[in-house]
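Sequence only, no structure available. Ideas?
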Amino acid sequence: MSYRRGRAPPRTPRRGPQKGGPAGKPRPLPLPNGKCNPLCPHFKCLNNALTIVRKPSHGKMHRVAYCRWIGDECIGGSCQYAACTLKALLPDGTCLYAKEKQQKETRIEDLEKELAAEEETMSRVERLMKRKGYGLDEDLL
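Reply:
I predicted one. Tokens follow.
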């Protein structure tokens, strides 16, 4: 088929945004225990020895960070050459974003516990008031 006469070639579909959201910015991916993940898009090896290889495990292929300098799997944030482009790598090898996420979750849990305790005390007060004869009037609510 000829593309002369004003016809444009067919367009190839573009890839959608990355896992970072609509802007396509990748987000940090710390390990579940809060340690720095060498597969994170922001992880950087200052020795330029990091490669990502595919390794079979339990019948499936998994991506594994491999260090060419030592010839074994990368140890992540505990390596002396590990760095983060977002400057989120803490000296103990944990990710700052993981710590913030854990603190946010604990704040939400504390708030939920506080609300549950307050509801319990209010129900206790309502029962006491009903027992004393000060029931709530439906028309006042």
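Residues 43-132 form one domain.
Hope that gets you unstuck.
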